[in-house]
Design brief:
By secondary structure, the protein is of the alpha+beta class. It has one domain: TATA-Binding Protein (2-Layer Sandwich). It is built from six helices and six strands; from the N terminus they run E-E-H-E-H-E-H-E-E-H-H-H. The protein has a six-stranded antiparallel β-sheet with strand order 1-2-6-5-4-3. Strand 1 and strand 2 form a beta hairpin. Helix 1 packs across helix 6. The two termini are 13 Å apart. The relative contact order is 0.22.
């Protein structure tokens, strides 16, 4: 299942792995492509430390200053959505998903020129590879 919501720009794809394994695979792909991993946030782990329970959920924040900086120079508000983020998560039934912001949504949201979007458009292929 792949959902590209026109309402909020979030693309969600099914993963063949659990959420943590999907996040691990995505991290490996990010590093292999020479991108920077700025943060990996373990929401479910943080919830457990607070005495709360939630299904596995991890957010990876990643990018490349050479790709993101021109977008932020053109439209400073693009920094609200950059660096790129991908959320590996499991639903109540234990199915794993990978969600990210669609580049065309980011382009429309911030009024960015299409020529600037090429370097960040690879997020879809990265997500697909991590979910396989």
């Amino acid at each position: 299942m792949s959902v590209d919501s026109a309402d909020n720009g979030v693309v969600t794809i099914a993963s063949a792995h659990g959420a943590v394994a999907t996040a691990d695979k995505l991290e490996a792909l990010i590093r292999a492509r020479g991108l920077m991993l700025f943060a990996r946030i373990d929401f479910s782990g943080d919830a457990a430390r607070a005495g709360l329970a939630m299904p596995p959920s991890q957010l990876l924040v990643f990018g490349n200053p050479r790709a993101g900086t021109p977008l932020m120079q053109a439209v400073p508000t693009a920094a609200l959505d950059l660096p790129l983020k991908a959320l590996a998560w499991e639903d109540a039934d234990g199915r794993a998903w990978l969600s990210y912001n669609a580049p065309d949504y980011l382009q429309a949201r911030h009024g960015l020129d299409a020529s600037l979007m090429q370097p960040v458009s690879g997020v879809a292929a990265l997500a697909e590879a991590a979910a396989r």
